[in-house]
Amino acid sequence: MGLMVWASVPARATGDPKLLTELTRPALYAAVSLSSDGHYLAALKRKGDQQALVVWNAAKKPESADVLPYDRAELNWLAWVGGGRLLISLNEHGLVLYDAHIGRLRPLIEHGGPRPEDLPPVLLSALPDDPTTILMQWEDDAVEGYPAVYRVNAVTGESRKVVSAWKPVIRWWASPSGQVALGEGFRGRRQLLYSRQADGSWRKIADHDYFKDPPLDVLAVEAGGATALVLSGHASNTRELWRMNIRSGTMLQKLAGDGRFDMAAAILDPETDLAVGASFTADGTREIIWQGNTRRQLSTVAGRLGVHHLGLFGSSRDGRRELYHSYNPRGPIRYYLYDRDADTLNAIPHDTAEDSWPAPKESGVWIPVGKKGQQQMHAVLSVPKDGATGRAVVLVHGGPVSRASVGYDPLVTWLTAAGYTVLQPNFRGSSGFGEAWRRAGYGEWGRDMQDDVRTAGEWLVKTGRAKAGSLCVMGGSYGGYAALMSSIKDYDLYACAVSLNGVTSIPHLIAFLEKHRFYKLTVPRIRGHQSDYVLSRLSPLYRASLVRTPVLMLHSTEDGNVPYEEGRQMALMLHKYHKDFNFITLKGARHQLTKPEDRRTYYQAALDFLDAHIGPHAHD
Questions:
Q1: What does the CA dihedral 432, 499, 358, 15 come to, rounded to 10 degrees?
Q2: What is the model's pLDDT at position 3?
Q3: What is the pLDDT of residues 70-90, one digit of tens each?
Q4: Is residue 581 part of a domain?
Q5: Do the Cβ atoms of 450 and 482 come closer than 8 Å?
Q6: Which residue, of 353, 378, 400, is where some domain finishes?
Q7: How much is the pLDDT for 5?
Q8: Are 460 and 422 in contact, with CB atoms under 8 Å apart?
Q9: Would you tell me how many other CB atoms lie within 10 Å of the CB of residue 348?
Q10: Does residue 414 sit in the same domain as residue 520?
Q11: Using CA atoms, how far apart are residues 466 and 443, in angstroms rounded to an integer?
Q12: CA gap 166, 143 in Å, rounded
C-alpha cells in the first residue's frame, strides 16, 4: 500500500458512527470530588468534546455550577483544602485557589511559588484542623531539582519554608496534622527512606535495590505521625498492606493481603484519616473493608442503588455528606451523593445513552504459559453480547508494567460491538500479580513476554473462540511493539497487526530514556543483560524486511514517551521493503490520546483495518 498519512477518519468507514462518537467523547461528569465541609462539589463537565472545570453547591443541582476558565488539558491536579476552597495545580500557570463560598478565583501565591519549569507541586496535607493553612512541597530555589516543604496560608497566599531540600529526597510525607515524618529518595537504582526522629534529626530507615529487594511503596503517614501505611512485599510474593513504624522502619502489622494479587491502595476514613480497608484488582476492582460501620454503610448504599461494585470516594469531615462511585460495565464511573441528615441518595447526572451501549460479556481467565505450561497467565476475555463470531483480537496493554482488568473499556466495547472477541493477556512483566511475575518480564522484550502474546492467540483458537486466519494482534506503546513483533515472529498465527505509538527500536528507546531523570529505575528492566546488538535484533525497525502480515501504524507527533520518529522510521522501512502497511500521523496528539478526535481516528482506522483483513467478508 505504500506510505499513507491520514489526518481524519476515512470516508468509507465501518461500524456505527453514533456509537463511535459516544464512546470517544468525555463522560458527562468526571473526576467528581466533595469539599471537606460537604458543601460543594467539583467535577469535569463535558462541553462538546471538551471538559470544563465546574463547582456547585451540593444542596443544588449541577446545572447551577460555576464554570471555571480551565479545561482538562490545563489541569495537573485538584484538591479541596480549608473546607470550601478548591486548590488547582495548572500545568503552565502554577497554583490557583477557588473559594466556593464567595466565588473568587485567584493565584494562591503571587511571588515565590512553584514555577512551571520546576518540579510539579505536591499537596502533603490539607491540615483539616487548621482550615486556613496547607502543607505543600515544590522545588527549592537553593537546591535545584529537589523539593522543600512549605506552609502556605490559603487566605493570604503567604508561604514559609519549614523543611529545606536535601539530596536525594524527592518526595516528602506528612501526617494529616502536618508533621513532616518521612523523606523518600533514589540514588541510582537504590530506594532510600529517611525518618524524622524525636530530637528532630533524620535517620535512614530503608535502603533497597529497586530491582532485587522486596518492593516498598509508601501510601500515607497516619494520624499522630508515628506510623505509615505501606505496600510491602517483604513477607510475601504479592504486595500487602502493612502498618510501619516510622522511626525504625519496622513492620508492625499486616492489614490486608491476597495470595495471588497485589494490594493496590489503602481506604481511609475521611473523618478520622484512619485505614478502614484496602483495594486491589483481581478480575475487576475488589475491596477489603475491616471497619464494621464502613462495611455496613457501603452495603446499605449499594443495596439502595442496586449495584455490586461501590466505593466510598469522599466524605465531609463531619460525615453528614458522602460521595460514592460505582463501576459501570457499560460506561464510565458513576457518582452518587448521600445526605445523611435528609437520608437522600442522588446520582450525579450521567449520559443516558450509556444504558444502550452493547456491553460485552467479560470474565477473567487463566492460561497456561511457559515451556511446560507450568505457569498461569491471567487474561481478560470479552465476548460480543451475541456470542463469539470466530473473529478475534489479542489486545496487548502498554507499560509494560501495567495490567488489564475486567471493567469498562471504550475500545473493547467498540471492537466487540463489531463482532470481535477481545483477549487482553497479562503477560510476564505485568503488574498486580506478585513480584515474581512482574520481574519475570525484565529483559524479556521480544522473548518470554512475546511468547505469552502468542500463547494468548493460540488459546483463542484452541478454545474455539477464534478461527485460524481470523485473528489479529493490536496494542499501544509496549503493546504496539508486541503487535509489530508478532507480524515478524508469529505471522503463521496472526493475520494482521495494529500499533498505536508503538516502540520500534529498543536501543533508540533506551537512549531516549537515558536523557531523563531516574532512568536507572526504568532502563534496567528493559535492557536486562543484553547488548545493543541483541536489542536491535529484538526491534521491529531492524527486522522490517521480515514483516509478513499487513500492518497498521498510528503515531502521535507530540508523543513524550515514544518519540514520533520511531514510528516514522518504521514506516519508511516498511515502504523500502514494499510491505503491506498503512501509517497514520496523529498531528498534535500525545502518547495518551486525550482528544476525542484522535481516539475516533484510532478506533475507526483500527476497525476498518480489521474488517479488511479478518472481517466477515475478508476472505470472500
A1: 180
A2: 43
A3: 999 999 999 999 889 999 999
A4: yes
A5: yes
A6: 353
A7: 54
A8: no
A9: 20
A10: yes
A11: 31
A12: 7
pLDDT value at residue 474? 98
Locus of grid cell 513504624 = 245
Helix (H) or strand (E) holding 556: strand 551-556
Rounded CA-CA distance 509/502 in Å is: 11
Residue 93 sits in the same domain as residue 40: yes
SS3 per residue for 370-438: CCCCCEEEEEEEEECCCCCCEEEEEEECCCCCCCCCCCCCHHHHHHHHCCCEEEEECCCCCCCCCHHHH
Give the CATH number, domain containing residue 419: 3.40.50.1820
Residue 86 near residue 74, CB atoms below 8 Å: no
Distance in angstroms (rounded) separating the CA atoms of residues 110 and 571: 49
| Grid coordinates belonging to 146 | 529537589
Picking from 323, 353, 383, the residue at the C-terminal end of a domain is 353
- Domain assignment of residue 211, yes or no: no
What is the predicted pLDDT for the residue at 12?
58
Indicate whether 421 and 542 sit together in one domain. Answer: yes
Which pLDDT value is given to residue 6? 43
Please tell me the pTM assigned to this model. 0.95
Query: How many domains, in total, are found in the chain?
Result: 2
**Amino acid sitting at position 362:** E
CB proximity list for 61: less than 8 A, separation 6 or greater:
none
Local structure of residue 115 (DSSP, 8 states):
-
C-alpha 292/C-alpha 282 separation (Å) is 23
Stated as kind and residue range, the H or E segment containing 289 is strand 285-289
The dihedral built from the CA positions of residue 549, 555, 560 and 564, taken in this order, carries a sign that is: positive
pLDDT at 129: 86
Domain assignment of residue 345, given as a range: 29-170+231-242+251-353
Four-CA torsion 186, 93, 114, 78, nearest 10 degrees = -70
Chain position carrying cell 498505536: 500
Contact between 488 and 502 under an 8 Å Cβ cutoff? The reply is no
Looking at residue 620, what is its pLDDT? Answer: 60
Give pLDDT, residue 241.
Answer: 98
The C-alpha angle with vertex 399 and arms to 392 and 375, in degrees rounded to 5, equals 65
Q: Is residue 585 part of a domain?
A: yes
Below-50 pLDDT ranges, the chain: 1-4, 6-11
